[in-house]
User: Which sequence fits this backbone?
């Protein structure tokens, strides 16, 4: 049985990307996935700000499910 790869959102532009094929980087033990190198570079230029934005978006998404 085939399963589809996990999908996630680019923390910079919000594009949905495949964890299996997306460019990625790690920060504080968490992996972040990007649609392309431009978004990855933006993230790396201000990781604290963009990492916090990504966490806030994820928390908001999880809150909507409850």
Assistant:
């Amino acid at each position: 049985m085939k399963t589809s790869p996990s999908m996630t959102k680019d923390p910079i532009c919000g594009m949905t990307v495949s964890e299996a094929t997306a460019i990625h980087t790690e920060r504080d033990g968490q992996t972040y996935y990007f649609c392309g190198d431009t978004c990855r570079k933006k993230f790396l230029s201000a990781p604290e700000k963009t990492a916090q934005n990504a966490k806030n978006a994820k928390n908001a998404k999880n809150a909507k499910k409850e």
